[in-house]
Design goal:
This protein has about 280 residues and is α+β, with helices and mostly antiparallel strands. Helices cover about 20% and strands about 25% of the residues. The protein has a five-stranded mixed β-sheet with strand order 7-6-12-9-10, covered by helices on one side. Strands 14-13-17-15-16 form a five-stranded mixed β-sheet, with helices on both faces. Strand 6 and strand 7 form a beta hairpin.
């Protein structure tokens, strides 16, 4: 695996030059087809996509041996033209677009070319390989030891998608009601963490009557009693929130305390989204 990362991987559309030592008649230049195969003058098509040029040369040598065309083939494969020298970065980055890279680059370097992640970015970014269409998820850690200790390479032609992180809403009698991105290192928030981001409850709040409103699969809402006061005092365990959850802390006066689920959910749609 490490040897493959020493060179660019071959992908569909790349123009490859195949040189067979001591047999110049078999030298050829051909383009890798959409199936990831390289057509040979002798031996038929050989799968070379996702291989390094050196590994592709070994695959061609194996085909020549299998076909009994040569006893001791020695092959050199060089890529004269890669199909693309760009990597596309989409989604929650400051400057989405296509960026030119001529060699494999760590994913953090490529994200830096795009201006870095936005405040609404999900740290689980998706990398799609140009060579074979494989998709993998890379976690952009806030911890520098993790971020630099586990690098992932991005190759020319690859695509990177940075999804939007989940949002949770803290509404009602809190200091800073609104929506808060789940953009910490765990991409998760508990109720008490989210309430703290909202500046905490005010002196006029009734946290003992708080509720957690969670959207259901059928489009409705589930009303879950939330013992926020007991949680704040350490008498009840903190709860993990899900993306889209709404915590509503009622005011002491009855008009807003009686606000229904639909009204609360409607308030969330127009809530301020805080980036920090």
């Amino acid at each position: 695996m490490f040897a493959q990362r020493e060179s660019l991987l071959i992908g569909p559309g790349d123009l490859a030059h195949v040189q067979v030592f001591d047999t110049p008649d078999l030298d050829e230049t051909a383009r890798v087809n959409d199936a990831g195969e390289l057509p040979l003058l002798l031996g038929g098509n050989v799968k070379v996509a996702s291989l390094t040029p050196a590994a592709a040369a070994r695959a061609i040598e194996g085909r020549l041996l299998e076909a009994h065309l040569m006893l001791h083939p020695r092959v050199l494969v060089t890529i004269e033209q890669y199909a693309t020298q760009n990597v596309s970065v989409m989604g929650q980055v400051v400057k989405p677009g296509a960026y030119a890279i001529g060699t494999p680059r760590p994913v953090l370097d490529v994200l830096t070319l795009a201006g870095g992640l936005t405040d609404l970015a999900n740290r689980h970014v998706i990398i799609e390989r140009h060579a074979n269409g494989e998709q993998l998820t890379y976690f952009v850690s806030n911890d520098p030891h993790d971020a630099f200790g586990h690098p992932e390479l991005v190759y020319p032609g690859d695509r990177i998608l940075v999804p939007k992180t989940g949002i949770v809403y803290i509404l009602g009698d809190v200091s800073r009601p609104g929506g808060f991105p789940m953009s910490n290192n765990d991409s998760a928030l508990t109720v008490l963490q989210a309430v703290a981001l909202a500046g905490g409850t005010t002196s006029s709040a009734v946290p003992s009557k708080a509720k957690l409103i969670r959207k259901e699969g059928d489009g409705g809402f589930e009303d879950i009693p939330l013992p926020l006061s007991a949680m704040q005092k350490g008498k009840k365990p903190d709860l993990q929130m899900q993306a889209g959850d709404i915590v509503y802390v009622p005011f002491s006066y009855l008009r807003n305390a009686a606000l229904g689920l639909t009204g609360i959910a409607a308030s969330a749609t127009s809530a301020v989204i805080y980036s920090k």
